[in-house]
């Protein structure tokens, strides 16, 4: 066994999964439903192709009710099943209260795990290896395993624990089986706290990696947990369809099922390492070979926040009308804007990538990505329509293909820029200069000197045109020599996707990689747009004729370019001043005129503006 595989079996990893989470959230809200058969319906009527059950309580499952069943079919099985309907917003299920409930649970997981990785709204991986190390030496009594099963063992839970306790009596405290059992005791404590603080039950799998922990978690539910050891992998695999293993449920799993003619996870072990590599390549073949033996080298990665935020809508009958799809684009954009605003206010982060996914009748599944410039309903909707129009053509109010699913999402989150970004610092700098001048003339009229904040606030807002005119006068601005028509034209061609990153400049610091349009005051934005999207006006910097609707991005381009020139000039000046005679060495390739600013150790941009 390789050293990596040995290390894999030294970890203690758990997958904690909420039991029928949507039902539990409704039961907490409506206590009279506790202990009764409950089905959660997506809609209360039969619009949009009918209303099916998206969650079913264990009591309802015992009666034969399954997820996906229609309301009429559920009532035909048992009229005693209580029906609850998902909250609705914009004719879509509103998951707000479920996300809030999920946050309560995830906070408890994160508090007790060395590493915590949120897997979905109702489950998470936790690495408790370091937590268990601190518990080594503690005795383990049967009563501490009152809700624990052992994967691969048969018989009642009591019989399984009795056999396992006898096994532990003969192993040392350094054995992995003992440590896994300590992990089970620790996870049971976490589950008890979740129940006491949220009223929710959850189940768990405790193993040595993410794959086996996930499989074990589903073997005994609800409100139970299962230990899986390396020796018990073969027995567990005999009871599990291999497509239930993580990453085998999609195209890869389907292709393997057809090519290898297998059904159970235990059948994977009969294929050699060389055979799998020949069929699926080095990386995938080796990964399948490891999974067949219960080895998963992927670590639990710290992730308490979602990677992306998505809103989607299914159309069982399909839609083709442009007006109908545009209406749904706007509704989904409103929902996505709400979620992104929450991410900004609560988690201080913003997305940088936008994606639109569709499932089409003729075109199948297709996606388009583009940069996301700002969190705004109109901008999100415009971006979605732009993505759609890349895949579909419209004629006489109808699209060229039928749409069965529309999903829009935003991801690749980055920390939100602080309020004191480059643009606001420049405006503050101008205001402070005005405040200093006005204080000289006013000091003879007032005995009490106003504080700094009130002095700045009392100054009239600087006109946008005056601000850029000042930049042009104070800083060596873009002239006809250094800003050719081709430069501006190239920026305008790509500005709809990324006005800042499209600038042909590579040395800007992180502080100015933001959309400056968001920092303008409402009054300035109105001035910029009051002439209408279809008219043109002269740029106050380069005097070129620019569409009013594009003027904000166009000025962002000039601002970034002039700021870069100012920063580079200051950095060169500081470098020349700080150089000593000893450092005047013959010029090398690394110190020629084309040397990048990023190669030179310098002060931050913020410190540069403080000195001005």
Total number of helical segments?
22
- Enumerate the strands of the largest sheet in spatial order, edge to edge or round the barrel: 7-8-1-10-11-9
Radius of gyration: 31 Å
pLDDT < 50 stretches: 440-517, 582-586, 588-598
**Helical amount:** 40-55%
The helix-and-strand class reads alpha+beta
Oligomer: single chain
Tell me the distance between the termini: 63 Å
Beta-strand content? 15-25%
- Mind describing the biggest β-sheet? 6 strands, mixed
Please outline what is shown here:
With 612 residues, this protein is of the alpha+beta class. The strands form 6 sheets. Strands 7-8-1-10-11-9 form a 6-stranded mixed sheet. Strands 12, 14, 15, 16 and 17 form a 5-stranded antiparallel sheet that branches.
What does this molecule look like?
By secondary structure, this protein is α+β, with helices and mostly antiparallel strands. It is about 40% helix and about 15% strand. The strands form 6 sheets. It has a 6-stranded mixed β-sheet with strand order 7-8-1-10-11-9. Strands 12, 14, 15, 16 and 17 form a 5-stranded antiparallel β-sheet that branches. β5 and β6 form a beta hairpin. α5 (about 95-110) crosses α8 (about 175-200), α12 crosses α13 (about 280-290) and α14 (about 320-345) crosses α15 (about 375-390). The protein starts with a helix and ends with a helix.
